[in-house]
Amino acid sequence: MADEEDTREVLFQDWEGPDKTGLTIEHTSGGELLVKEVKGESPAARSGKVYEGDQIVGATIYFENMSSEETAELLKTLNKHKVGLKLQNKGDKSPCYSPLSTPCRSPMGTLTWEGKTQFGASSPEIIL
């Protein structure tokens, strides 16, 4: 696997699969997923950040232009994989509210907070 310092993320705004992005992807017998070819004048080539022989070690998928049905189906297909979720607080509930009254956890499994009150303040300020 590639070192973290050699890892880079390339954002494709309109991903429609490797063919339309200009990539040929190959599976190696060792279980790696590699960029076999970057086609000239393709979105991948124009990015200047994708090279033949690069190992694909992960992907971030943004849900902004996906229907809730597409998103739900995608999440259902992910089993026993490392997944980080980008979450937003909706409604009037506290960001750390849990129906089971358990503390909320970050994807890394830790939550650090420091309570600070100001004179006359009605609730502590939480710094994450």
Automatic annotation (TrEMBL):
Major place of residence: nucleus
Annotated InterPro entries: Myelin_sheath_structural (IPR052082), PDZ (IPR001478), PDZ_sf (IPR036034)
Protein name: PDZ domain-containing protein
Keyword Disulfide bond among UniProt keywords: no
Native source species: Xenoophorus captivus
Cell compartment(s), UniProt: Nucleus
PANTHER family, A to Z: NEUROBLAST DIFFERENTIATION-ASSOCIATED PROTEIN AHNAK, PERIAXIN/AHNAK
Signal peptide: none
